[in-house]
Amino acid sequence: MSFPWAKQYEPKNPVMQWVDSRLPLPRFVYNAVGAGYPVPRNLNYFWNFGILAGVALVVQIVTGIVLAMHFHSSAAGAFESVNVGMMRDVNAGWFLRFTHANGASMFLAVVYIHIFRGLYYGSYKAPREMVWLLGVLIFLLIMATAFMGYVLPWGQMSFWGAQVITGFFSAIPVVGEWIRVWLLGGYAPDDATLNRFFSLHYLLPFVIAGVIILHIWALHIPGSSNPTGVEVKGEQDTVPFHPYYTAKDGFGVGVFMIIFATLIFFFPDYLGHPDNYVVANPLSTPAHIVPEWYFWPFYAILRAFTADFIIPAKLWGVLAMFGSILLLFFLPWLDKSPVRSANFRPMYRIAFWVLVLDVLVLGYCGGSTATPGVVITSQITAAYYFAHFLIIVPIISRLETPKPLPNSITEAVLANKGGSRMTETAVSA
């Protein structure tokens, strides 16, 4: 419970009273997503993407468990079990497979929007640093799970993706080659690789679910952020999560499912790669090795380093790729502005949209053939990506003069409806 005025759980039914006195699970749910959890009254639809990520994870776990029953984790049987066995011999297997494959893209799309929402509205700032740190950890786990899942169909792009990505670990001095052999279970992707990746791909979603519980727990201590960035001042600034936001989230889930179903039934292979319908061949390298779309920005950063400088370019690429995610852990301490929301930070808002454009260009470069023009563009945009977090944001947070903040969430809501004017109080939340 985040606020003292939250309604207490009071079961009326004798059975529920008996359960609550021995296992207060209904009380826990009521306080987490029911009327016992007051939330700011001004949350917009970008706050739907947290629950959408949860829905996507459940879809991936359920479909993944069923698909795992029919998967052969061997180099001789993986491709056929995915492309023939599941598609033809399993009841509704085609639906489960396309739902799982496209579900990964939907999951990552939702997570990316969720992250950028946090960047725009300053959800990483105190007192929600732990919420942000756990969110970045979830993102890393999702990326690892998605990469291992992409290898399992054992098509050409799966095999060579594993070969190329694990090959970059060998650039790490002293222990690099040892790490690569440990990941693959040998000197090249084979049966041992499939067994290891399949085992971890099955395990990690449950680890992600556990970290999400911690993420929500950490969120409920300070309470949800909101578009103004101003903290809740009183009961008038909040509404119960249920029914107001369960209804709003329900609408969001409906729209999400329509888009998801359209992808599954009309464009099931649109986000995949045709080479992955060709069985893995260690003797035939594809003309253009490219990962799934959600890895493209980081793949572009990896390829942006082409010249040795003190250490090999390959090692610079590996360090930069992992560093581009790891630096997000330090964002709460890089941005020292007392104002959270970009709505009140004109300079930061411009920098944010430039970053969005920069990541989109990185994504384009990561999915394109590495021509000289693409490599130069990758180098410029990769440099800007790091400059945004390490130079631009810290400088802006010191020089920027934010717009006046509303005195309260209620005042901001009424001002938007023309009921009152916001006062010029630049007090940080």
UniProtKB/TrEMBL annotation:
Sites binding heme b b566 sit at 114, 215
GO biological process terms on file: respiratory electron transport chain
Q: Which UniProt keywords apply?
A: Electron transport, Heme, Iron, Membrane, Metal-binding, Respiratory chain, Transmembrane, Transmembrane helix, Transport
Residues that bind heme b b562: 100, 201
Membrane disposition:
Multi-pass membrane protein
> According to its UniProt record, where is this protein located?
Membrane
SUPFAM superfamilies given for it?
a domain/subunit of cytochrome bc1 complex (Ubiquinol-cytochrome c reductase) (SSF81648), Transmembrane di-heme cytochromes (SSF81342)
Subunit arrangement? The main subunits of complex b-c1 are: cytochrome b, cytochrome c1 and the Rieske protein.
Family the entry assigns: Belongs to the cytochrome b family.
UniProt protein name = Cytochrome b
Please name the source species: Sphingomonas hengshuiensis
Q: What is the lineage of its organism?
A: Bacteria, Pseudomonadati, Pseudomonadota, Alphaproteobacteria, Sphingomonadales
